[in-house]
Amino acid sequence: MFLMSPGLTASNPAPDVDFLRRRKIRLDNPERSLTDQLDNVLHSPSLVDLKGRSANASLIEVEDWEIQLPKSTPSLMDSALKIADIRQSVQYVNVASLAVLVYDYFQTLELEVELVWKSSWSISKVVFLLARYPTFVDVPLILYYTLNQGMSYDTCSVVNAVTSWSTAVGIGMAEVILLLRTYALWNNSRKVLIALIVLYISIYTPVVVVLAIFLRSLQHGAPPLPIIRGCYPVSGSNILFADFVLLMLYESTVMVLTIWIGVKRYLHSRNRLVMTLYRDGVSYFIYIFMISCSYIIVLLACPPEYVDLLNTFQRVMHSILSTRILLHVRDTARAQTSFTFPIALNK
Question: Considering the entire predicted model, what is its pTM?
Answer without folding.
Answer: 0.73
